[in-house]
Amino acid sequence: MKFIVFLLVLSTLFAFGQDSLKVPSKDLQIAAAVMAAPEDLRAGATVYGFSPEGEMITLREGTNEMICLADDPKRDGFNVAAYHSSLEPFMARGRQLRAEGKSFQEVREIRGAEAKAGTLKMPKDGTTLHILYGKEGYYDADSGKVVNAIYRYVVYIPWATTESTGLPMTPTVKGAPWIMDPGTHRAHIMINPPAETQEF
Description:
This protein is an alpha+beta fold and about 200 residues long. It has one domain (about 1-195). The protein contains 5 helices and 10 strands; from the N terminus they run H-H-E-E-E-E-H-H-E-E-E-E-H-E-E. The chain has helices spanning about 1-20, 25-35, 90-100, 105-115, 160-165; strands spanning about 45-50, 55-60, 65-70, 80-85, 125-135, 140, 145, 150-155, 180, 190. About 25% of the residues are buried.
């Protein structure tokens, strides 16, 4: 009898966990995800999102080189992204390692070693990651706009340095570009436009 009660409680907790995930519909995920991409590339972008169970899936196959990521329902806040397909090996490897339970530092070290060895293909030219995010952000389906979120550009230029780019390691003025992780496989230019100038 106790075992039956235990199974009932367990099944109830599992059902509650599934219901509380609240994954948006496929169409809503796509509509929100493409807001991170440049407007002229949205219609043809590939979109990755989440199944009703919260697993990452392909929501739409694209016709151009842009890939968009839908907001993760398991994480707080709002975060959608878009990037050129040449960055996909780097991004996909990170997702794989995190799914295996690797820490941030482990992911960084493993990808770094693989990039240096040439087994992880990195983009040859500057490749932009577009991020639209906010702790209180959300996609308003009625207006077709993202509310309470801001935009960030991350331009990956593997192995670049302050000397090779002329960029500082901190922004000289608000919103100015600067280089982060110089000299590494994940060297990138950070550009954070002032939040008060943004509207989506």
